[in-house]
Specification:
Elements (H helix, E strand, L loop, with lengths): L1 H27 L1 H23 L6 H25 L4 H8 L2 H11 L6 H18 L18 H25 L4 H22 L10 H22 L3 H8 L2 H13 L5 H21 L1
Length: about 290
């Protein structure tokens, strides 16, 4: 149950981060959004490291932290870029296949998974794919959002999914041996050093009053989601990763009501498949 609760907690937090980062990216750009989110996240995580007390880091743990941080920062930069050219209801579900990628890596590495749980995870992945499937109907800006989904957004989203999937697996390895705050640290630290500081030095770190509430929400939600996932992954990376990826279904539905983005019949059916799959998986694991 801990893997399920951790994964679902991450899904809710990352859905909030997805919605807010999409708005912020369109206001101040992807790099500035990432920079502010990482700065805020680092400010939140740092005190938690001291509360947890000192830890001894092995070479393997440092390697997993580097993989987790680099994969997460690159993935965020790619997905924020995708939001500048596409709809939340299409980009987010594509990115959410990160959970399937992490689960495949985890099972390949030897994690045991029951046949029934595997079938349910497969059904959830099918639902994600259905939500992600864009038709020509999605290419017309005839909904209230007024946003035309461009093919380049799909490319960015697919690259982000691969980067996030590898990061999720590495994060699960960190959570198995270190306090959860340490799982959230690498991406925040790398993001600040590699993205925020260079932008600041070049005087290109933008922030507007309209974007400020969104970047604060992104920074907080990313940290909460990471810590929730890391805790859940200590009891099963595959389950926690796939359930965490359900942030996409939540974000797609929310974008429909909040921003007027349409969901096609196929995408709505995919969302329903995800909900049923999560419910059945929860019952099986319980």
């Amino acid at each position: 149950m801990i893997a399920i609760l951790g994964g679902l907690g991450a899904a809710l937090a990352w859905a909030v981060a997805t919605l807010c980062s999409a708005r912020s990216s369109r206001l101040i750009g992807s790099a500035a959004t990432l920079s502010w989110a990482m700065l805020i996240g680092l400010a939140v995580v740092t005190p938690l490291l001291f509360i947890g007390g000192p830890v001894s880091l092995s070479g393997a743990e440092l390697g997993w932290m580097a993989a987790s941080g680099l994969g997460n920062v690159l993935g965020l930069l790619l997905v924020y870029r995708a939001f500048q050219f596409g709809k939340i209801g299409i980009v987010a579900p594509i990115v959410s296949t990160e959970g399937a990628i992490a689960a495949v890596v985890s099972v390949t590495a030897g994690e045991q998974l029951s046949l029934a749980a595997g079938v349910m995870l497969g059904a959830i992945v099918v639902g994600v794919a259905m939500v992600a499937a864009a038709t020509s109907e999605d290419e017309r800006p005839d909904d209230r959002s007024g946003i035309r989904h461009r093919p380049i957004a799909t490319g960015y989203a697919m690259a982000a999914a691969l980067s996030f999937g590898l990061s999720l697996y590495a994060t699960g390895q960190i959570g198995a041996t270190l306090p959860t705050a340490w799982a959230a640290l690498p991406a925040r630290l790398i993001g600040v050093v590699a993205v925020a500081v260079p932008l600041l030095l070049l005087s290109r770190l933008r922030l507007t009053s309209a974007a400020a509430p969104f970047v604060v929400a992104v920074g907080l939600a990313e940290v909460i989601g990471f810590m929730s996932y890391a805790y859940g992954a200590t009891h099963g990376i595959a389950v926690a990763a796939v359930l965490a990826s359900q942030f996409a279904a939540i974000a797609a539905v929310a974008a429909h009501f909040l921003f007027g983005e349409r969901l096609t019949a196929r995408q709505a059916a995919g969302a329903a498949t995800i909900v049923v799959g999560v419910a059945l998986l929860t019952a099986l694991q319980a």
